[in-house]
Amino acid sequence: MTNNPATPARSREVERDARAWSKFSGMKYTQALRAMEHPLAQGILGDRICARDLIRVLTELPVLSEPIWETDSEGREIETNERVTHLGDSGLYAAENRALSSATEHDYVELVLTAEVLRAFTPTAEPRSEAYSYNLKHTVEEFLGEHLGDHAYIANGQAIWAAAALGIPLAESNPGEFSLNADFGLMPEQVEYARRMRRTSGATRIAVRAHHHRPPGYLFLQQALQHYRDTGEAPGRWDGVDEHAEPLTSAFHEWLSVQADPSGARGARGSRERLAGDYAAGVRDGDHGVARKPEELLTILRRVGADDDFFDMARDAIVDWARTSPLSNGIRTELVDRHRSDHGGWGAGGGDVERYEFRCPCGDGAIVEEHDNVPGFREHDVTIICRTCTSEWDFVPGLSVRGWRVAPISAA
């Protein structure tokens, strides 16, 4: 019998997985094949997940299993070389109460999808108590439930099983207490971001103002599940590049953050310590992103509705950064006024004149930027109009008039 040329050849790996899963789960071989070939089981954020790996980890990982003991001829208990899993649907040490669900195609696809959500996160070298299985089970539920309504429930044991198959570091939560939960080696900031996102929905997600801790594969997986929901087709595979990633740090961010109180105390009112502490907390909690340039600190304060005294603290910090940090490439000050007026021209047609006024670094004068956009008389200029700042600050060379920055004269 010859193969139908219109039917693609089934890979041996898929067939081996189907045989192994059929034997493990009790599913018929043809059902197991359908599960292995499901459009959502072909790998979205990485290679196709191997069913044999899912089976193997249950007895190879000590955190998921325990040794099988036998009684010798003298009645003594001896440990064999074999192990049995104690992972059940509810979590660790729950196999006797309720075994892991694996008997249907739906069970298999759900397990694979759980693994897909978990591999959107960045692994850490060791398990973290902030990234525990019951929390992440809910993250997976709400992530999948939003896009695939028939996968809106995930068991705690499924989350642990999927993490183990991905090679994510695992440890029992509260060792010695036979906890149902496991700690995962995933970046806690990303786990917290996903927790905050799942507690909001639709238009209310604008309350999550910063996405610098968004898991790298998060957006791609969302789009992939939406594509499957709308078309029924297997999603494409991620190339590993997060095109929408926001910066995690900057030189100014690091400089300001280390001035916060290490204990987490806010510091005295009006102090640099308080400014740095509140800024670092806002970045950590996702209330705002990282200040990539010093002047972005003022933009952040406006967005969060900070009090006036924080603006004064921020202006002092920005000037201090420019004066003291060898990494500074100058600063831009705040825009305080702008004006555009039409001009009749000088015989070659009309135009306009732009005038922008910025604070000077000391706050007692101004930096004035002007543009004469008139045919035959085009002129662009920026000037420091302040006795103090004229002697202490200069424009960074090599920049356009519209792109000016100022630096202390010694640095400039």
Short characterization:
36% of the residues lie in helices and 18% in strands.
Structure, explained:
This protein is of the alpha+beta class and 412 residues long. The chain has 13 helices and 11 strands. It has helices at residues 12-25, 29-36, 51-60, 105-118, 133-147, 156-166, 188-198, 218-231, 251-257, 272-285, 296-303, 308-324, 387-392; strands at 65-71, 77-85, 123-132, 170-172, 182-186, 335-343, 351-359, 366-374, 377-385, 393-395, 406-408. It has a 4-stranded antiparallel beta sheet. Strands 3-5-4 form a 3-stranded antiparallel beta sheet. Strand 6 (335-343) and strand 7 (351-359) form a beta hairpin. Helix 1 packs across helix 2 and helix 4 (105-118) packs across helix 6. It is elongated and about 100 Å long. The chain starts with 11 loop residues before the first helix and ends with a strand. 30% of the residues are buried.
